[in-house]
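Question (not urgent): is this output format expected?
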Amino acid sequence: VSFSAARNLDVLAQILGGIGDVITVCRADASRSLPAEAAADALRLAHPQRHIRVVPETDQALSSAWAKVPEGGLLCIAGSVYLSGAARRYFTRSHRTAGAADLSRDG
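Got this back:
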């Protein structure tokens, strides 16, 4: 999850904090995104039962989040258009270098 700085943080944290058991927070765009710690604080306030972790660097956050997806699981990337673009670039690169089988959690 990454949030654009100009958005209604409390509402987004309430909605997006409910989408997973483990939420990885990063800052997708240094000039337009909210600092990862501020986003994580809002998510923790809205969902104290969730495991919220901060991985500030976007590619590391994507890699770390993907590594934690169990077989048959799902990775949801949300909150920022900048993050979705970064994820598309990251997984396109990963797909080319690792092969499609490595990006599947279906076994």
